[in-house]
Amino acid sequence: MRSAEATLSEIIGAAGAHVPRLLALVEERLVLLAAGHGPVLAEHAGETIAAGGKRMRPLLVVLAAGPHAGRERELVAAAAAVELIHSATLVHDDVLDGARLRRGAPTVWARAGRDVAVATGDLLFSRAFSELTAVGSLAAVRSLSRATSALAEGELLQRQDAWNGSVAIERYLLRCELKTARLFQAACEMGAQVARLSTSQIAELGGFGRGIGLAFQLLDDVLDVAGPASLTGKHRGTDLLDGTVTLPLILARERDARLAAVDLRTITTPAAAEQLCESIEQTGALRESQARALQIVAEAKLALDGLPLENGQRRALNLVADSVAERTA
Ligand code: FPP
Ligand code: MG
């Protein structure tokens, strides 16, 4: 299994030197955009950005644009905007979840409370659309705003379906699409828009992003049940304790009547969650969930075949898809 760093260096090796250069510019922009607006917001927005993350969405913006897109200021702005939206949603999500740790650091909610966390998320959200003006494209505004509306819908769907063990697979997949896949889609669309690709090419690249985003979420949900905590950095079954019903549990309940009879509200301790994870795993539901995710990645990669991409760009996008399929944390 390759480490995340090895995969990123392989992606950069395939795509070319413009990628790390642009990603470094994105980091600089993110720091600048989080600064100001009073000391409290500057501190918490700054720490949110400094906590890092995989920066997958900026990477997708840059890769979708390809090596000859030019228009570097626009690309960096698009990549920074999409990452700011992602960061804003996580700050708000941690308030809703009452989550104390994110990316190994205390969340804004844990450090400074609800009011500051809501305001910090709002600021990051607003800075994203301010940065978007530098992209100078109404199509980019449309892509990012659609994805952001989808995020809000997805989050609400998750709250509405909390603790409902008999949620339908289609509704679970819709939730994953709304809360995760659409922002990946927007990242690819925005890169392709800045590179002035055709409408159908923008849609194809967007479809690729949507596919790997969907698989990313499915595998995130598999890892929550599969663990181990030493790799994922969180206890097995955190979703179960939050009442978040995901594909492994849905499939396991179809396969084992005893699991279908479990009332999720009775799972209140990490030990009980761990035990339920074991039972889910024994039904084979983890393997099936993973197989579905891998199938989605394979289909997403097929979407690249018809596109006139540079060789290195094509290889790099395929490697991103592989890194999603192989993710262990
Ligand atoms: C993290 O997923 C949460 C999301 C991807 C969506 C959060 C969306 C909102 C809070 C609403 C929209 C907000 C704005 C600013 C538009 P997860 O809970 O599965 O993952 P986690 O384990 O990392 O928390
Ligand atoms: Mg969450």
Automatic annotation (TrEMBL):
**A matching Pfam family:** polyprenyl_synt
InterPro entries found in the cross-reference section = Isoprenoid_synthase_dom_sf (IPR008949), Polyprenyl_synt (IPR000092), Polyprenyl_synt_CS (IPR033749)
- For whether the record's keyword set contains Membrane, the answer is no
Please give a single GO biological process term from the UniProt record: isoprenoid biosynthetic process
Keywords attached to this Swiss-Prot or TrEMBL record, sorted alphabetically, are: Magnesium, Metal-binding, Transferase
> What PROSITE patterns is this protein classified in?
POLYPRENYL_SYNTHASE_1, POLYPRENYL_SYNTHASE_2
Q: What is this protein called?
A: Polyprenyl synthetase family protein
